[in-house]
Amino acid sequence: MNKAKHLIVLFCITFLFTALVYFLPRQSDLLSRFSFLEKKTAPIVDSAITPIDTVPYIVKLQSALPLVKALYSEKRNKYFWTLGKGKAIPVYLLQIQKHIQSYGGKVIHMEELFLPNAFQSATLTFSSALGDTSTIELQISENIFGDSVSKMAIAFEVEKLSPELIVQLNALDFPYSVLVTPFGTTDHFFYDIDKLKNAETILWLYMESEKLRNSHYSKNPIRIHHTEQKIEEIIESAKKKLPYTKGVATRYGEKAVEHRNLLNAIFKSLQKQELWFLDLTDNRTSLVSYICKNYALKCKEASAYSEETSTIEDYIARNLRLASRRGTSYLILPLSLKTLSKIQDLKEKASTQGTEITTLSNVITVRK
């Protein structure tokens, strides 16, 4: 009897051992066939990869604005924000609207107010992406300017560079742009351009104009009778001479900016080269802003200084006022020792009204 028990125990042990040897390597396959046997585990969420944004949207909007004072009235369920002087209230409203929309929110009501004791004010009601509704009453301070609430681009039209001009330009304590025609000049000219420390180089290209003369042909002007291929070659060749350029400004060109086919050819090439376009012609029939909408590039219009219409002092003062009222403006000045002497206190004047002096690209490509 005992012998029979021993045989049974031995048989069971042998069976279990054989089963383990057979089934263990096939465990995952068997579990996949019998899903009820499969071990359930909770998914692991890596918080470092998908962080949870706990900052309320109203805080993000507040930090994006040059606020002088911020209050909240629980009784009226409304925010009261005072903004730094330097931009008109419609400019602020547009900036706020774009910020709200970029975060998935929606403006419900927006209205400029004309209160008896307020300098400039407005009210704004919006809903965030989460559906929270907020109302803000905005007011611009009468005497406190925000820090860099507006921008003014400054550019110099460069015909030639002398050692004295280079020293004066490098002494400027703000960034600026130089408009350069890269054709019909010497290699030494480009060597001098490279000496400028805070300069952004911009292509200043001759374009179709009644002012073009035979002496301008060496400058490779862009003409109405040119093919798209020829125009593309001119722009590509210009960029090779100034590879770090970010844009193109018109030199003459009052006929070019009113010619639809020519502008289309120019903009196709600029889009390919990822360059912006600045119309300096002051032509009221310019089609630049209309046609530019069809291309993935930035286009702006600005007025260069002309001694026939104003003094340098009046031109600078006018553009300082424009920067304060609209948020942006442009100073396009001929480069000379006289011109540089007129802008010695420009940064101080701009700072007192919250205007930052910068390059053309920083104003043309600014998101407003």
Q: How many strands, which pairing sense, and closed or not: the largest β-sheet?
A: 8 strands, parallel
Oligomerization status of the protein chains? single chain
Gyration radius (Cα, Å) is 33 Å
Q: Helix tally?
A: 13
Mean pLDDT: 87
Specify the helix fraction band. 25-40%
Give the low-pLDDT segments. 34-40
The arrangement of helices and strands along the chain is HHHEEHEEEEHEHEHEHEHEHEHHEH
Number of strands: 13
- The class by helix and strand makeup works out as alpha/beta
Shape: globular
Q: Tell me the strand percentage band.
A: 15-25%
Taking the alpha carbons of the first and last residues, their distance comes to 98 Å
Keywords:
13 helices, 368 residues
Kindly summarize this structure in a few lines.
This protein is 36% helix and 25% strand. The chain is α/β, with parallel strands linked by helices.
Chain-wise SSE layout:
Layout: H1 2-23, H2 27-33, H3 57-63, E1 67-73, E2 78-85, H4 89-102, E3 106-113, E4 120-127, E5 133-145, E6 150-158, H5 163-170, E7 176-180, H6 187-193, E8 199-207, H7 228-241, E9 247-252, H8 260-273, E10 276-279, H9 288-292, E11 299-301, H10 312-326, E12 328-334, H11 337-342, H12 346-352, E13 355-358, H13 360-364
Parallel strand pairs: 2-5, 6-7, 6-12, 6-13, 7-8, 8-9, 9-10, 10-11
Antiparallel strand pairs: 1-2, 3-4, 4-5
Helix pairs in contact: 7-8
